[in-house]
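User: Protein nucleotidyltransferase YdiU. Structure?
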Amino acid sequence: MEDKNINFNFDNSYVKLSDTFYNIQNPSKVPDPKLAILNNNLAESLGVNSKALETDIGIDILSGNRICEGSKPIAQAYAGHQFGYFTMLGDGRAVLLGEHITRNGERFDIQLKGSGRTPYSRGGDGKAALGPMLREYIISEALYGLGIPTTRSLAVVTTGESIVRDRIEPGAILTRVASSHIRVGTFQYAAQYTSYNQLKELADYTINRHYTEAFNTENPYLYLLKEVIRKQSDLIAKWLQVGFIHGVMNTDNMTISGESIDYGPCAFMDNYDPNTVFSSIDSQGRYAYGNQPYIAAWNLARFAETLIPLLDDNKEKAIKLAQDAILEFNDIYKEKYISGMRLKLGLFNKEKEDEDLIYELLNLMQKYKSDYTNTFRNLTLNKLTEVEIFEKDDFKSWHKKWNDRLDREEKSKEEIAKLMKSVNPSVIPRNHRVEEALEAAVKNDDYSVLKNLLEVLSKPYDYTEIQEEYTNLPKPTKIPYRTFCGT
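Assistant: Predicted structure:
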């Protein structure tokens, strides 16, 4: 079977940029690649032959042992603020194979993550372990099922290598699919290490790729800035509405396209608490659940700084344009967040007191350590029993206010319930369920647990009987749940 039977249709527009933005880089060869999991639905949507990907040739391509026809592999350069400190970065363990063009003309990056050393590896081995790659597969596909913009996972292959981290783990490579891998950190790299012309080159490329309408405006670069602010406002609001915590919101982990990317120490919150942190390396809580909007604004300010030379020839005017755009973030974010939370409570129209109603419930959930997802699920199903918060007088007072508010809606109870089911997931990737799936796959080579979990997570708003067991909370433990970067 030849490469062309797989139906990858590669273009390589990124390599037309100045070569300061990338290095030509083939993936490292691996000794014994085997397909661990393949995303058939994603392959089908891309127009890629999933059966062909399961063959030896397909697995060789997914492992980097074979370069597919039309592919020009590169490692991309970027910089970034990591926990507030600026540093030079780049694809230290990833290779971009190229951009796949679908039958509909859509363009998607196809990247191998964990594919070996590059000039940006900074002393690392460039490899990835199976557990973290499967975690990214689970969480990215869960976010996709929840309707949240995200990079996606096409496949994970094991490499036949042993990877040394805090313990010895099997090696693996993830095939990541993204609208692009252009990051805030890519612009920081251009602003810090290249020329004005190259910064403009990157900005024009980004507009051509994601925001072509910008060229019809008076100031294309201001339009670009405002659109990225709008996209990120929407993304962060959606994260918070489902209790998602990214874990490492460095500027190199914020895309210009508005997609979620890089699922290292990410997790979903159980008990509602804005201070929730799962990442083992976030000892100060910089990227806690409730801090995510503020960090997004900070990251976007760094993006705005990179565009100042392009916004106006007059530096003072350019700075004012950038500042004014960034100042809009909080209002845009708040509107998107409150609007989404209003829907979670079954509210179609807008009333002045809605915000107070939302925050009063959240405060009660925090007070009684109530599970975030299941509280909204139970409100959706009108199942107000067997949970501590529902027995409390202050909740009952809030519940009466909510019902009074619902009575002012012009929609029927059936329409309200339907709305709530469409925005309140019945299931999320509970941390204990994710760990259960990873342990079965990594330790026992049993992927059935993982595949069952993925099936349930693919339709989180269905409220089916099979989802019931996945709504159960983890057993109490004195040891806090911790997640790790996997690098």
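Residues 3-181 form one domain. The CA atoms of residues 92 and 120 lie 5 Å apart.
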